[in-house]
């Protein structure tokens, strides 16, 4: 039989965190905003062309000091590229929905 000892941890909430929540959704939104800002400046520097590996590493380096407080939350260049591609796909899907509905927006 294996025995585990559980020890309580001190937790601190951040500004605006609701009681009983992990705050992960807000942290993710903030990290995504930082990602889009970092990617956007590189994207415009490349005249709206594809970013190179070095550019993606620069994007990851811009995010990690602000949002990569632990090894688990640090983003790699590949993760940044995948997240941007996912956001682009979601944007195209939403844009197509609006175009197909004569400009009216419905929440899902």
UniProtKB/TrEMBL annotation:
Record carries keyword Transcription regulation: yes
Ranges where the Myb/SANT-like DNA-binding domain occurs: 28-101
Keyword Oxidoreductase among UniProt keywords: no
PANTHER family: OS05G0560600 PROTEIN, TRIHELIX TRANSCRIPTION FACTOR ASIL2
Chief location of this protein within or outside the cell: nucleus
Gene Ontology cellular component annotations, sorted alphabetically: nucleus
Gene Ontology terms for molecular function: DNA binding
Subcellular location(s) per record: Nucleus
Descriptive protein name: Sequence-specific DNA binding transcription factor
Pfam family name, one: Myb_DNA-bind_4
Keywords, ordered alphabetically: Coiled coil, DNA-binding, Nucleus, Transcription, Transcription regulation
InterPro entries in alphabetical order: ASIL1/2-like, Myb_DNA-bind_4
């Amino acid at each position: 039989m294996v025995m585990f000892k559980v020890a309580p941890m001190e937790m601190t909430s951040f500004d605006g965190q609701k009681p009983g929540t992990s705050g992960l959704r807000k942290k993710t939104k903030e990290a995504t905003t930082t990602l889009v800002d970092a990617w956007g400046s590189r994207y415009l520097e490349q005249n709206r062309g594809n970013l190179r590996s070095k550019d993606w590493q620069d994007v990851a380096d811009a995010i990690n000091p602000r949002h990569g407080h632990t090894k688990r939350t640090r983003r790699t260049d590949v993760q940044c590229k995948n997240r941007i591609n996912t956001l682009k796909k979601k944007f195209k899907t939403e844009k197509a929905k609006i175009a197909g509905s004569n400009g009216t927006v419905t929440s899902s």
